[in-house]
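If your schedule permits, I should be very grateful for your opinion on a structural question. I have a record of one protein: its chain in single-letter code and its fold written as discrete structure tokens. Would you kindly read the sequence against the tokens and tell me how you understand this chain to fold? Thank you for your consideration; the sequence and its tokens are set out here.


***
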Amino acid sequence: MTAHPPAILHPSPTASRESAGPALTLTEHLEELRRRLGISLAAFLIAIGVSACYVEWIIDWLRQPVVAVLPRFAFFTPTEPLTAYINVAILGGLVLAMPVLLWQLWGFVRTGLTAREQTSSTAFMWWGSGQFITGVAFAYYAILPVSLRVLLGIGTAYLEPMISIGAYLSFVTTLLFWSGVIFELPVLLFLLAKIGIVTAEWLRQQRPYAILVLVIVAALVTPTTDPVNLLLMTVPLILLYELSIWITRISMPQRPRRETS
């Protein structure tokens, strides 16, 4: 039987009574969205400025996996070092601003939740930030060393690596960023479940298709095509999907049972 996406769930009378305030109009929703986007942008820019003050330390940390092979990097255009530093500052700013970004996201979504559900904003903020940082750490400590060993080990008999600072940092920051984004999968599905777009049952029914999509995503994110890297990224993604099903199931309000006459 073909599974269809669940319809948007309408709040139960009990949930409506527990709502913290009156429903917002479309204009009020747009105004709320504009305000929270402005706060998020301001927090992101401030975080980039803070990150720029420590960009040398961040770059030194990012180069550790390859420092034994490449003690120094090259640059081939006058603007390449500046561009590389800016990209690193942006990634660092994203990590620093993640709690505020998630706080604003939850603040926008929470207007449609019950008063009891609205109290979990702090937990959501730290959970989402932790997921992103975990994804970054996983890519740095698990994926990156294996990828660099494979890539830099090609043609060592007659090739000598000469990598520019911009190319290396772009390679590393892209991998870390997308790994962090992918690890937000449980957070995304949790939000979609809260607003009634998905359910745990529907996610279980879509598991075969989801695994196929996750394998494709893992192949796109991993810098090499060898099976080791693909497996290292695919297995956590599948586990995250299973975790999402469990989180979605426990986060959905229990429907009252109908009494049989």
About this structure: The two ends are 31 Å apart (CA to CA).
